[in-house]
Amino acid sequence: MNKLLVILMGAGLINFASAQQNISFEMESWVTQPDRSMLFQQQPEKIPFNAEPGRGGATIVIDESLQMQGVDGFGFALTGGSAELMMQMSPAARTALLQDLFSTGGDKVGVSYVRLTIGASDLNSFVFSYNDLKEGETDLSLSKFDLAQDKKDVIPVMKEILSICPDIKIMASPWSPPVWMKTNGKVKAGSLKEEYYGVYALYFVKYIQAMKAQGITIDAITIQNEPLNANNTPSMRMSAHEQKTFIKDHLGPLLEKNGLKTKIVLFDHNLDRPDYPLTILSDPEATKYVDGSGFHHYGGDMSAMSVMHAAYPDKHLYFTEQMVIERPGSDRIEIAAQVKRMIVDVTRNWSRNVILWNFAADPNNDPHTDDGGCPMCQGAVTIDKDNVTKNLAYYVIAHASKFIRPGSVRIGSTNTGDMSVALTTDEERREVVRVATYDNNSILPNVAFHTPEGRYVLVVANNTWNTNLFRIQFRSRYANIRLEPGAVGTYVWSLK
Questions:
Q1: pLDDT, position 339
Q2: What interhelical angle do 80-87 and 91-102 show, nearest 10?
């Protein structure tokens, strides 16, 4: 953001008096300390905005005139395995967990985005699709399509979620089509047979329609989870050319024919390969059906999303998956680095959402499939019968999801490297004011939003080893903040 955002007041210099300085407002703060003494805890005292900046620390200037992307939400993947664990809980314990996750009242965290798996993922107990047949059989009309397995776990959990948060955004992604559509006839690896492109497009349509019949609206789909990774069970390879052909000649037209508004999101894989979605978006027949592109961060740099935005600013960016884990029982929570990466860096690079992987696992990180499942995939919560432990990923998302609600807009805030302005008095002539500009390299990682309710939200991560004093400048007034090493703060205020 190439703007002069910071004004630092030198001692005895000009008092920038204005009518706005007579406005009185203060902020609330929610803090997580790395020693776990506070875990997303509301601070008892509100922080005032003052007319004078005070001393010490860099200034984060909030520029509400600079507006970037809108927000769709923050959340997790509801895999079949996590839904299975939730269904094994007592109804009262499950309801308490879902209320904590999806409600916004009190100390609840207000998760606002869910990713579902179309059929099984590698975090299911076993592999299935919605059209499993005996070897050698085909079903070109998909007359045997059935959500039977999801009706046992994913669908009842989703219905309870929707009773708490009716407007939650839902994305769905497949790990593999039915094996009879694949070149190798197996759940792992292989490719989609070209003669079944049209049938597989119908498979997506039937899924969207069947979920809608259950009261579950699928807002967006990705075509293939990790299309360049054939190591999961289940999985499937899909090249950029294959995905482009599938979208423009089959899925896009069929969704349109059926009057379905579900968005198509490309790629759904790592940030080191933006060439994949860029290849598809360069095709005018394919791009007209595409809403945007989705990324993971198991490889590459977050700036790849900004490259995508620069190339196609009319197409949206989504962050569709990332595993964030910690050692069970650790006396420290390494939250600052993950909030910087997953909240600050992701949204500063134009993503409309953040989805982590995944909602829940048991103490052994089960369930998962064999030969390509994930034995290290810890959930945002660990479920042991009715006992729930909240893990690192839970608190990372909480620092954004509770207050940065869907419909919020990212606004300007000082970033590392932004140009800053300093005013000082001349050493020889005290009545003379000198001005200097410099690259600001002492700003803590942060990102700011303006919400539909008229609130302003700033998330700050102290990823240094020093206690940091900093100030927030908003409408020519200043709030002075202290944030401990390794801590994260979410700061919320309004003019009301």
A1: 98
A2: 130
CA distances in angstroms from 228 to 236, 292, 481, listed in the order given: 8, 18, 45
Hey, which residues are catalytic here? 226, 321
Q: CA-CA distance, 319 to 90, in Å (whole number)?
A: 33
User: Is the sign of the CA dihedral 69, 174, 190, 264 positive or negative?
Assistant: negative
Calpha distance 350→82 (Å, rounded): 29
Residue 144 corresponds to which amino acid?
A: K
How many Å apart are CA 357 and CA 25, to the nearest integer? 38
DSSP-derived letter for residue 246 is: H
As a 3-state breakdown, the chain gives helix, strand, coil percent values, each rounded to 5, of: 25, 30, 45
CA atoms within 13 A on the CB side of 258: 17
> Residue 365 half-sphere exposure, CB side, CA atoms within 13 Å?
17
Cβ atoms of residues 248 and 291 within 8 Å: no
What is residue 24's predicted lDDT score, i.e. its pLDDT?
Answer: 65
Point out the residues of the chain with pLDDT beneath 50: 1-21
What tokens does 387 get?
Answer: 């006992």
The C-alpha atoms of residue 204 and residue 478 are separated, in whole angstroms, by: 52
Cβ–Cβ under 8 Å, residues 270 and 320: no
Helix 80-87 with 154-164: angle, nearest 10 deg: 80
CB-based burial, 95-107: b 16+ in 10 Å, e otherwise: eebbebbbbeeee
Tell me, what amino acid is at 480?
Answer: N
CA 152 distance to own-chain centroid = 27
Residue 22: per-residue pLDDT: 54
User: What tens digit of pLDDT does each residue of 255-311 get?
Assistant: 999 999 999 999 999 999 999 999 999 999 999 999 999 999 999 999 999 999 999
Alpha-carbon distance 8 to 4, whole Å? 11
The encoded tokens of residue 394 equal: 């839970």
Distance CA 64, CA 311 (A): 25
Given a contact cutoff of 8 angstroms between Cβ atoms, the answer to whether 240 and 279 are in contact is yes
Question: DSSP assignment, residue 380?
Answer: S
Provide the pLDDT for residue 20. Answer: 46
CA dihedral 473, 474, 476, 477 (to 10 degrees): -70
Helix, strand, or coil (residue 186) = coil
Centroid of chain to Cα 246: 27
Residue 260 contacts by C-beta under 8 Å, 6 or more apart in sequence? Answer: 205, 208, 209
Torsion of CA 204, 208, 213, 214, to 10 degrees: 110
Task: Show the tokens assigned to 278.
Answer: 């860029």
What distance in Å separates the CA atoms of residue 375 and residue 122, rounded to the nearest whole number? 10
DSSP labels, 49-63 = PBSS--SSSEEEEEE
